[in-house]
Request: fold
Amino acid sequence: MTDASWLPDLPAPTFRLLPGEVAVFRARANQSAAVWAQDERHVEVSPLPGPWDNEVTPYLVGLMELYSQEHVRELFIAGGSQSAKTDMMHTCWGWVAVHDPGPALIGMQDRDTGSETLSDRLIPMINGTPSLRAIKTRNPDDLSMRRLRLRNGMRTYLAWAGSEGRLASKPIRYGFLDEVDLWPESSIRKARARFRAFSDSYKVIEACTSSVESGRIWQARNLAQVRLDFWPECPHCGECHKMDFANLQWGEGVVDPAKLSTKGSAWYICPSCVEKWDEEDRNEAVRRARQIHNPPEVWHRSEEH
Reply:
């Protein structure tokens, strides 16, 4: 046998990964949508533009945590006007784009509103949020008024009520449908049919300002398997309750909305301790609020919905 002891030791084999391979192998942080938003999200169109702050809209945190759960498939959000429902959907879109990309559909009530949403909100959000900016492509056409495409394979399409072809032509995993009470029922059905190809992993959010009990969003709320109400906690007595318009009062003879908005012209009465809430009390009550299962038991909703 030939003696090879005189040969030098070979160096350990080494190789260098390309940047894209490094991104694939890098472990992603196991964080919820709410945590991701607090750490990363940038807001452009807002009374408070800049970094997202969960304390500004604490009632959205629980909803974002729910969306982050693997077993949650559908969220129906019935809320008041200008309560950041759309921003919450955009946060969830950004979270899946970074953590679990797949084909997505953003549905708005009309084409102009959809185009403005992409140009004024989502594209600035991508540019201002570090983890989204890191997966932008170099092609400027990939961030257009009709479609968003990111480097990790996340593709997002815009549709609107009445855009039958766009609602019916693509398999979709993630759906974000806004102001659904303004959609024809046929458009809702066509949009929801897109999720069948991902029956084991799809996620859908439908949101709308509550208007009438016969509307799409209120009917969906009543049929949900789990229903959550947001109950503020009185800063005076510590009791939680569901807010009721009957407890809102204002000065006698005051009918001018401008005067009603003046501090002290209107107030809310706590049904437990009968203390008057001013604006500061209301904000504190919302910060302390809890999400209440209503009713506490869980039941199955119709499979046809």
Notes: The longest strand covers residues 203-209. Confidence is low (pLDDT under 50) at residues 297-305. DSSP finds eleven helices and 13 strands in the chain. The first helix runs from residue 19 to 25.
